[in-house]
Amino acid sequence: MKHLFKTIFPVVIAAAVVLTLSGCRSKQGGTFEKTKWGMNAVEVNNSTKRTLITNSDGSIKAEDPGTVDLIPENEGTAGTIVYYFDTSGGLSQVTVTAAPKAGSDTEKLADSVKKFLNDRFKKTGETDKSVTTWQVKSSKITLWQQSESIMICFERDD
């Protein structure tokens, strides 16, 4: 009996590890809040407490998103969050627009978001004029600093 246990136990553990790893890879980790690349619209809706509206192009929009983890509340306010889906219905892109609050400015807001993303991914984004990009596991993140707002785009990148 002990010999059987010693033989079966490692096989069961190995199978569990393989199943866990393949399950984790089935929906690559997204980089915006609780979403994951490949989620369908219902799963995205269930991952947030925001009220989401379906647009005519099939995307989903949160018009009044409230607080967003990467935008400091004292510096900016998210205007919209839009979730885009690929032809198979899986989440492939998320865009967030934000404007500075009174007493702050676009540059300060962009710098705070850059710091948040640099700390989160433990790497510095590459900046070219008013555009900063991060290439991280399964995602490309782009921050555009405009005169009155910023836009952050999270894209699936396999």
Overview of this protein structure:
- There is one protein chain.
- The N and C termini lie far apart (46 Å).
- The chain is built from 3 helices and 8 strands.
- It has helices spanning 2-26, 41-46, 106-121, and strands spanning 53-54, 60-62, 76-85, 91-100, 126-128, 131-136, 139-145, 150-156.
- Helices cover 30% and strands 30% of the residues.
- A hairpin with a 4-residue loop joins strand 7 and strand 8.
- The protein has 158 residues and is α+β, with helices and mostly antiparallel strands.
Write a compact overview of the structure shown:
The protein is of the alpha+beta class. The protein is built from three helices and eight strands; from the N terminus they run H-H-E-E-E-E-H-E-E-E-E.
How do the strands of the widest beta sheet line up side by side? 1-2-3-4-8-7-6-5
Give unreliable regions as ranges. 4-29
> Averaging pLDDT over every residue, what do you get?
82
In DSSP terms, counting alpha (H) and pi (I) runs of 4 or more, how many helices?
3
Beta-strand percentage? 25-35%
How many distinct beta strands?
8
Secondary-structure element order, as H and E? HHEEEEHEEEE
Distance between the termini: 46 Å
Note the main sheet.
Answer: 8 strands, antiparallel
Task: Return the structural class.
Answer: alpha+beta
Radius of gyration from CA coordinates: 20 Å
Helix content: 25-40%
